[in-house]
Amino acid sequence: xxxIITIDLRGDIEALFEDAKRKAASMGVALNGDITAxxxxxxxxxxxxxxxxxxxxxxxxxxxxMFPQAMLDAMVRKLFE
Length: 81
Known about the structure:
Blueprint (H helix, E strand, L loop, with lengths): L2 E6 L4 H14 L3 E4 L3 E6 L2 E8 L2 E8 L6 H11 L2
Antiparallel strand pairs: 1-5, 2-3, 3-4, 4-5
């Protein structure tokens, strides 16, 4: 079952995504795509994302059982801080 996370992006979206890609890579997660849409995989999780204006919508389509959903949500949100 998938899970949706919505994040209100603040600031320069291109800079946020470049920073998020670096952070994700350092954790072993591949963040593929651009500032409009893409996907990610790593640490046993997969999903996709899209951006509409300043709103980032992330759909987690698979997560490892060992990660509580709240922990995964916090990790994802931290990428875009």
